[in-house]
Q: What sequence folds into this?
């Protein structure tokens, strides 16, 4: 059994990781925990014209690994095995697609991502995931 | 200046210019950051500084040119059509193909600065044209538009990208706005002056028609590309008790 945990490095996404850990610990057969970070593509037409694809990918990969870092530390501190994955694309789309691909039993996701202004305007990823995912979704505050 | 500020039209124009700047400046900061990526740490800050400086200088020169050029006959006509094309392009979704034809990020300071400035030249054309059209020859508005766009050269407007994700209608509103401004530019074309003066309702009919046209073309062409692309960047597996190691794909 797999739990997919989309993370972006925000406090709420870390809460989701901690919740998934506690949930996993309570199960007799602990599920495989899968972290996912999705980077929005920075490669618009103009950017692609002036920057090679490899540099763009490296940049997105670096940003993604940074976003995963805190969640990976939480899991490593708990002494757990896990899988991680970086995707590029529309976050909600990428999350649901990867969850289905991995045959995840559920998606455990933080109530909202990045704080600040975005918190009020956005929160969109969670709403969209709830809308389009066929899998059970646990939203963690 | 003071009377000008008190008219609602002035504030409508200010709003238009801010919108245009926001919609047409997103890429600059990304290009600057990426062009300097492969520089040694010590040169990276210099590269960014020179690149931003050069891009700002270039933007000022281009704006001055645009104003001079748009005063010539026929050029408003050409500018209006160009702007309508920019508007349609804004609505169309990006082609997701990852071409390998981009320029390899330079490992030399001047190479990176050159990339930034050439890129800004290309990207500024849209922005400068849009702002010049919305300012309608008003120097204050033009300078204002320029000032608003300058911080956007240096700082990424990721927020705009996310807002567009959340409210895709913004992109249609933006396209319609650019179409409207293009229509206003058309109305200002001296060649059409006598016609516009006699048929007064053209003043609003032309901009509204242009906005509608942009929306129609954008929606029709956009229908064919709705596939949302998702790509894998990297993945890895970490077993308990071992060092974490990631694999690139």
A:
């Amino acid at each position: 059994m797999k739990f997919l945990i989309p993370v972006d490095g925000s406090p709420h996404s870390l809460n989701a990781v901690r919740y998934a850990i506690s949930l996993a610990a309570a199960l007799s057969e602990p599920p495989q925990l899968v972290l996912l970070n999705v980077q929005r593509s920075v490669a618009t037409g103009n950017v692609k014209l002036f920057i090679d694809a490899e540099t763009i990918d490296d940049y997105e990969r670096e940003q993604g690994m940074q976003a995963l870092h805190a969640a990976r530390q939480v899991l490593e501190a708990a002494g757990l095995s896990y899988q991680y994955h970086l995707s590029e694309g529309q976050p909600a789309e990428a999350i649901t697609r990867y969850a289905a691909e991995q045959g995840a039993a559920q998606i455990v996701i933080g109530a909202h991502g990045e704080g600040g202004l975005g918190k009020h305007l956005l929160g969109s990823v969670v709403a969209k995931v709830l809308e389009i995912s066929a899998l059970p979704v646990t939203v963690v505050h | 200046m003071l009377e000008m500020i008190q008219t609602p039209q002035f504030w409508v124009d200010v709003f238009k210019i801010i919108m245009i700047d926001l919609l047409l400046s997103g890429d600059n900061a990304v290009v600057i950051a990426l062009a300097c990526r492969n520089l040694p740490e010590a040169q990276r800050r210099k590269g960014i500084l020179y690149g931003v400086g050069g891009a700002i200088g270039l933007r000022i020169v281009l704006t001055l040119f645009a104003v001079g050029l748009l005063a010539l006959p026929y050029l408003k006509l050409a500018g209006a059509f160009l702007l309508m094309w920019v508007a349609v392009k804004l609505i169309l979704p990006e082609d997701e193909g990852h071409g390998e034809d981009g320029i390899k990020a330079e490992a030399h300071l001047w190479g990176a600065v050159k990339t930034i400035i050439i890129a800004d030249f290309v990207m500024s054309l849209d922005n400068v044209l849009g702002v010049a059209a919305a300012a309608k020859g008003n120097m204050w508005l033009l300078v204002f538009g320029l000032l608003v766009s300058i911080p956007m050269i240096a700082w990424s407007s990721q927020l705009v990208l996310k807002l567009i994700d959340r409210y895709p209608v913004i992109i249609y509103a933006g396209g319609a706005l650019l179409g409207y401004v293009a229509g206003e530019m058309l109305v200002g074309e001296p060649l059409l002056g006598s016609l516009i003066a006699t048929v007064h309702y053209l003043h609003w009919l032309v901009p509204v028609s242009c906005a509608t046209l942009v929306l129609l073309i954008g929606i029709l062409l956009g229908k064919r590309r709705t596939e949302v692309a998702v790509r894998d960047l990297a993945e890895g597996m970490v077993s308990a008790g071992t060092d974490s190691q990631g694999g690139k794909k």
Q: What stands out?
A: Chain A touches chain B through 50 residues (CB under 8 Å). The first helix of chain A runs from residue 11 to 26.
